Amino acid sequence: MLIAGLGNPGPEYDHTRHNLGFVAIDRLAQHFRTQFSHIRCRARVAEFSFKGNRHLLAKPQTFMNLSGESIAPLMTEEKLSREEILILVDDVNLPVGKIRLKPSGGAGGHNGLKSLISLIGENFWRLRVGVGAPEGNMVAHVLGPISHAEHLILQAVLGDVSSITCMLLAGMGGRAMTQFNGRDYAVPPGTEAAPALPVLPK
Asked: What is the CATH number of domain 2-180?
């Protein structure tokens, strides 16, 4: 499987919302104890083993709008199908604290996904990490720094990325969607609102 995090190369983008894909893929590299030691198809690439099978992590260095021009050639070199791809991206259509794992779908306005879909189609896994809708300019929002409050929530989100990935690698993508897609990481555990009491007849 090829697991790619989307972002923009360069230190000026390191702490921006649009680079959450890179942050998530770095977390996976730590989890699987591997390093991005070489460049292939204009991407920084790392290899790891899971249950005896070899897999790749990738960080395209093409800038976001051309992400597909890196991932598609990697797929070809590795002889992978679209169903063997997982893309980690930020998503302004989800609030901070929400994620969505899906096996297919459109770009949702995300330029990195647009680039990839234009080259390989829509049927690949994607894990969207919510960064919230902008109050003003979209570019300023996604290329803006993550606030301290957002950072605390996203740490909880990123803590589950490895679990989601391992389930997907084990062929349990459907179970992962059921388990994680409904979570709200912005709500501290144990503080969810209690269900409303039924109205008793008079």
From this structure: 3.40.50.1470
